[in-house]
Specification:
The chain is α/β, with parallel strands linked by helices. About 35% of the residues lie in helices and about 15% in strands. The chain has six helices and five strands, in the order βααβαβαββαα. Strands 2-1-3-5-4 form a five-stranded mixed β-sheet, with helices on both faces. The longest helix is centred in the middle third of the chain and has 18 residues. The model has no long low-confidence stretch (mean pLDDT about 95).
Length: about 170
């Protein structure tokens, strides 16, 4: 199965980074396409988007100044299927993308994504103290997967910090 297309442009306000595409995303060619994934609901209810977008509209986030990519491009059923080598290569590629496109904030959709990227084990939700790429703020948010056991309201509260952060940067 082919990787899905990144949605990137220079000087984004916000870049979302997921683990990797789901099989459903691989089939449709759109980010967060699994109907059990709450990404689009979270974005809307946290104030990041003016309405609830559909996964087929993922490219339209660019109009809001938001981009999308993954640390590993290969679609899988579960993140556990990703190899150490894929994470290592994905980390290098992600750093290159962030350096090239220079987003103001990178939101890691899942603590595990950021752990692979930063090589840190203990980290809080939200803004990280140490940046991997100077000049870009790292923000760690919970995964939007339906498998996450956090309450949806708690997840939305964490994502709701991002619009405040973006406003403070303008």
């Amino acid at each position: 199965m082919e990787p899905i297309k990144d949605h990137l442009k220079e000087n984004l306000d916000l870049l979302f980074v997921g683990f990797n595409p789901s099989i459903r995303s691989g089939e449709t060619g759109h980010h967060f396409a699994n109907p059990n994934n709450r990404f689009w609901k979270i974005l809307h209810e946290s104030g990041l988007t003016p309405r609830k977008f559909d996964s087929t509209e993922d490219y339209k986030l660019l109009e809001l100044g938001y981009g999308m990519t993954n640390i590993v491009p290969r679609p899988t059923k579960a993140a556990e299927e990703i190899t150490k080598e894929e994470y290592k290569e994905g980390r290098k590629e992600l750093i290159k993308k962030i350096c090239a496109y220079k987003p103001k904030v990178v939101c890691f959709v899942g603590k595990g994504v950021y752990q692979e990227y930063s090589r840190k084990k203990k980290l809080p939700w939200g803004i990280q103290d140490e940046l991997v790429v100077p000049g870009t703020i790292d923000f760690v948010a919970p995964s939007s997967s339906g498998l996450v056991r956090m309450k949806i309201d708690e997840i939305i509260q964490i994502y709701a910090e991002i619009p405040k952060l973006l406003t403070s940067l303008k």
